[in-house]
């Protein structure tokens, strides 16, 4: 086995031994064989150890914790910029993802050929009872185009609740990327904040993908109305931050996305929620705009902001 792998794969796992086995099997089937996988298990049961011992592949390394940590904190352990194994590249994948055989080789080819330190490939949700071999990737809907995005251009998608959480990141180790997120307790909000922290150009790859059997999104929060939900309040803080940082420039970029995807009503609602009233012609009726404005004001003033500590730490 070569002393240094080409790519270091980080797999945060939490009480999903069956999913972890499936992910590792998919990695073992890759065309690119020179990789190491660092498995981070933060659960009290530490079931990943038994999975790794049973598979007995020297490319697998277990990184457990002395004390159990929650799933969000455990996931952040996978996003350090530097490599623990001397690999040139690193990627973080979920413990329920599977991949086509050229997944790693496609990433590596682009990373060596192109100048970008950060790449993103999509993850598509697939119910567990679906036959993966019958998949036709050409039918998948991509939120992003296969191109290079500036940080602002990519972050404009946050007005539609889309960011790096739509897929898996791949990066050049040792670069000045800041991918770890601290002081965030909801997994969905952590992905939005990770998108906020992108400080370099990002290339989106449509040539390869991951498949996940885990439905996206955070767990529901006590059936509370959307405008009092912690995730909705955090998302409000994210879009307000973007408008403060970029001004009208990012709103114009968001409008272009709305034009392309026919999401004018959604953007109007988010802009009202962000305290930036949309321009005419309106898509939403006046009664809906007034109700949205009332709910947004209530949410901003009376719902605790789950990202308050996060924005204090990055300001």
Record keyword descriptors for this entry.
315 residues; Spore Coat Polysaccharide Biosynthesis Protein SpsA, Chain A; 2 domains; 10-stranded mixed sheet; globular
Helix and strand composition category: alpha/beta
How would you sum up the major sheet? 10 strands, mixed
Mean pLDDT: 89
What would CATH call the homologous superfamily of the largest domain? Spore Coat Polysaccharide Biosynthesis Protein SpsA, Chain A
Specify the helix fraction band. Answer: 25-40%
| Strand composition percent | 5-15%
How many separate helices?
11
Please tally the β strands and state the result: 10
Q: What general form does the structure show? A: globular
Distance between the ends:
45 Å
Compute the number of structural domains: 2
Characterise the protein shown here.
- The chain is α/β, with parallel strands linked by helices and 315 residues long.
- The chain contains eleven helices and ten strands.
- Strands 1, 2, 3, 4, 5, 6, 7, 8, 9 and 10 form a ten-stranded mixed beta sheet that branches.
- Strand 1 (7-13), helix 1 (17-28) and strand 2 form a beta-alpha-beta unit.
- Mean pLDDT is 89; it is low at 215-224.
């Amino acid at each position: 086995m070569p002393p240094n792998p080409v790519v270091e794969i980080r797999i945060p796992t939490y009480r999903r031994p069956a999913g972890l086995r499936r992910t590792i099997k998919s990695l073992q089937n890759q065309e690119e064989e020179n990789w190491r996988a660092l498995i981070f298990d933060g659960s009290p049961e530490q079931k990943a150890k038994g999975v790794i011992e049973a598979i007995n592949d020297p490319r697998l390394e277990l990184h457990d914790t002395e004390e159990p940590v929650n799933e969000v904190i455990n996931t952040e352990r996978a996003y350090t910029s530097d490599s623990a194994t001397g690999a040139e590249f690193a990627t973080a994948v979920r413990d329920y993802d599977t991949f086509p055989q050229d997944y790693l080789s496609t990433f590596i080819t682009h990373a060596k050929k192109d100048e970008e330190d950060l790449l993103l490939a999509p993850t598509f949700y697939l119910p567990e009872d679906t036959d993966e071999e019958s998949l036709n990737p050409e039918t998948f809907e991509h939120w992003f185009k296969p191109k290079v995005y500036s940080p602002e251009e990519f972050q404009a998608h946050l007005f539609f609740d889309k960011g790096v959480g739509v897929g898996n990141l791949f990066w050049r180790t040792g670069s000045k990327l800041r991918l770890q997120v601290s002081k965030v307790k909801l997994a969905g909000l952590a992905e939005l904040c990770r998108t906020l922290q992108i400080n370099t150009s990002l290339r989106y790859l449509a040539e390869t993908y991951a498949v996940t059997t885990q439905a996206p999104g955070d767990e529901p929060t006590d059936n509370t109305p959307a405008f009092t939900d912690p995730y909705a309040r955090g998302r409000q803080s994210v879009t307000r931050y973007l408008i403060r940082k970029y001004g009208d420039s990012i709103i114009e970029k968001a409008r272009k996305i709305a034009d392309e995807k026919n999401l004018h009503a959604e953007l109007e609602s988010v802009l009202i929620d962000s305290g930036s009233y949309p321009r005419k012609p309106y898509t939403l009726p006046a009664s809906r705009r007034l109700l949205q404005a009332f709910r947004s004001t209530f949410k901003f003033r009376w719902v605790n902001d789950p990202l308050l500590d996060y924005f204090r730490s990055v300001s």
